[in-house]
Amino acid sequence: MNALSLLFLFGLLQQQAVTDYDPLVSAGKVTIKDMQFQYGTDDRVVPIKVYLPESSTPAAVLLFSHGLGGSRDGGAYLGKHWAGRGYVVVAMQHAGSDSAVWKDAPLRQRLDAMKKAANWDSLQGRVNDVGATLDQLTKWNDDDADLKGRLDLSKVGMSGHSFGAVTTQAVSGQNYGRLGQKLTDKRINAAIAFSPSMPNTGNVGRPFEKVSIPWLLMTGTNDTSVINRTTVDDRLQVYKELPAAGHFYELVLFEAEHAAFADETRIGAAKRNPNHHKVIQALSTAFWDTYLLKKPDAKTWLTGESAKALLEPNDEWFSK
Question: What is the spatial distance between Cα 52 and Cα 142, in angstroms, rounded to a whole number?
Fold first, then answer.
């Protein structure tokens, strides 16, 4: 076989690899387990929901942080899909900004209760939960009956929606003025923020200029929030503030509202474009496969025409 034939064969094999890669195909059965642990001098409780893949081989770990007023049940459509792809997914619940904030309040007072919970102390508690969860997973990987030997904690992805996106930004490289990157947890290797946002305080400088790990941001053209009056421009600004060169991506779904990134049962689901969850699952999976598992075919898919083919005409997909 001459050199030209070998080159042609290599091209065919490479094209076949791209064709075969499909981030929407599930790899197997998912087992879901509710757990919790305590940490710190105040014995803070962190309920978690663990999505386990069918294989017991050590798997990369994906953390998920719910939005304001949510719980460990949030992000189930992502947890099930990612675990079906072979990841161990851990959805955390954050005391002080979870469903307990609003569920016992009178109906007319629930919005105010939510707004009061969106504060620095709540964010700090969430950041501490992330670190404590990784510490606890390390222990459970040694001695828990269900998790022993199943976690590859050298490959960790962080994700979250809304206030969970703020949490994700905090632990994945955001700069906080005099605090710098003190909240960053260096055990995290890549991050996805669903409905990200700029800091709502003045004089923040360039909060994302020192982000060094891969980030994927997802938002929509109608993605606003009444809690902290976040606008679509606030969300789009995050991507603009990231370094000019790196492994950074942004998806902007046309007419997607804040609830577009939540589960099917959330308020607003009836108005959701059914293609949105499909796109969210596919792009997020290809992103994890690229930057945590280092799969060449996933990167080719993510950065090529295959990813764009899932989008609708007015959706936008950026990378830098």
Answer: 16
Stated length of the chain: 320
Is the per-residue pLDDT at 4 higher than 70? Answer: no
Q: Which of 18, 24, 91 is nearest to 279 (CA)?
A: 24
Q: Which domains, from first to last, does the chain contain?
A: 30-319 (3.40.50.1820)
Measured between alpha carbons, how far is residue 197 from residues 56, 238, 301 in Å? Answer: 37, 6, 27
Residue of 70, 43, 56, 50 whose CA lies nearest to 137: 50
Pick from 97, 92, 34: which is nearest to 61 by CA?
Answer: 92
- Please give the share of the chain, as a percent, with pLDDT higher than 70: 91
DSSP string, 12-74: HHHHHHHHH--TTS--S--EEEEEEEEETTTTEEEEEEEEE-S--S-EEEEEEE--TTB-TTT
Arithmetic mean of pLDDT over the chain: 91
Cα gap 231→224, rounded to integer Å: 5
Residue pair 31/52 in contact (Cβ under 8 Å)? The answer is: yes
CA-based end-to-end distance of the chain: 40
